[in-house]
Amino acid sequence: MHPMYKQKTYRCDAMAVLPAFRNLMLLHVDYLRNHPKTKVLPIDVAKRNINLYDLYRYLSDKNYPEELHWVILLVNDLNSHIELDHTVQELIFPDAGIVQEILATSGI
Question: pTM above 0.85?
Fold first, then answer.
């Protein structure tokens, strides 16, 4: 197998599978997208090409915290991690502190 297609394991953050967490983030998606601390960054094309169709692997390779992977998928209006393709030129990255503030005020 070509090294570019080497399988990596991905351990999903436990919080991302909780319906309460998902609903909370869905309620705050516009807030997260438009918050002043949210960044819109260009895609690292080389890393995207290596991790084509796997947003989670791309984010792991870029050292983004695992607990933000699903939130990043959400704010970028992606339905699945496999939607990372050649058309994706930039990604929205919500601030981890803002996500933590939302969680803290919710009691989750």
Answer: no
